Amino acid sequence: MILMIYTGDLMISYVRVYIIAGLILLSFNAESQNYRLEKAWETEPVFSTPESAVFDANRDQIYISNFNTFPRDLESPGFLNDIAIDEKGVIYFTDTSPKKPEASAVYAFRDGSVDTIASDPVNRSNGLLCDRRSLLAGNSRDQSLKKIDLETNEVHNVARMDTGIIDGIKNYKNEYYIVTLWEGRIYLINSDGIVKELLDVRSSNIRTADIEFIPELNLIVIPTFDYNRVIAYRIKE
User: Fold this and answer.
1) Which are the contacts of 218, defined by CB distance < 8 A and separation ≥ 6?
2) Do 43 and 3 form a contact (C-beta atoms < 8 A)?
3) In angstroms, rounded to a whole number, what is the distance separating the alpha carbons of residues 62 and 12?
4) Distance CA 219, CA 172 (A)
5) Residue 34 in contact with residue 98, Cβ under 8 Å?
6) 20 or 115: whose pLDDT is higher?
7) N or C: which terminal CB in the chain sees fewer CB atoms within 10 Å?
8) Dihedral angle of Cα 111, 115, 118, 122, to the nearest 10 degrees
9) Beta-strand relationship, 2-7 and 33-42
10) What pLDDT, in 10s, does the model give residues 165-210?
């Protein structure tokens, strides 16, 4: 597997992944299943504040966005953050606006126009996930994982999280959500809103930013922000 590093519009290097760290097992129980995380690999510190990861199955490559590199100067209304695309091609994105939380919102871009789909119940929104006809949004102001009905734009709470920035959200087996708190924690959340911790690396000063999950490999890919590495864990049952 290859990681591709981008700075702006220019790809500057490839990093081939090797297992350079020892095996770490973390026990976890969710209902009748016994889940654990097994560390698969960790890169050298070759990134510039890696924040987000996306897997390209056709090319067998993982794309990593680096927070400290930008293709051009951008003007934004606040802090344009995460993005998600549904099965109809509608693009959703969050404006986190950390300095002005009341301006935070979730938007939809369709047919050449931008519409606000959630604002009042959403403050400091970050992570997004399209899940059938709903949109999951991490709402860091009240520490809630929220679900937005894309037919009615109604907003419902899915689960309450611990204190932190709700960053990555991925679907797992269509039964659970894998959710990260940027400060260094990963959780599994079921449909009843029960939150179970999978990983806590805060004591090592490792961040868990906007993750990617690769179902075919059962692999969670974690950009670690100022740790400047990408780390991967497999979910074992």
Assistant:
1) 234, 235, 236
2) yes
3) 15
4) 11
5) no
6) 115
7) C
8) 110
9) unpaired
10) 999 999 999 889 999 999 999 999 998 899 999 999 999 999 999 9
Task: Give pTM, 2 decimals.
Answer: 0.78
Would you put residue 58 in left (φ > 0), alpha (ψ -120 to 50) or beta? alpha
Average pLDDT across the chain, whole number:
79
Q: Are 134 and 146 in contact (CB under 8 A)?
A: no
SS3 at position 202: helix
Rounded average pLDDT over 127-143: 89
| Contacts (Cβ under 8 Å, ≥6 apart) of 71 | 8, 9
Interatomic CA distance for residues 211 and 55, integer angstroms: 10
Element (H, E) at 130: strand 125-131
CATH number for the domain running over 2-236: 2.120.10.30
Distances (CA, A) of 5 to 15, 228, 231: 8, 12, 15
Query: Is pLDDT larger for residue 1 or for residue 204?
Result: 204
Q: What's the confidence (pLDDT) of residue 3? A: 47
DSSP-derived letter for residue 140 is: T
The torsion angles phi and psi of 182, rounded to 5 degrees, stand at -55, -30
Amino acid at 221: V
Domain range summary for the chain, segments of one domain joined by +: 2-236
DSSP assigned state of 163: S
Task: Say yes or no to pLDDT of 11 above 80.
Answer: no
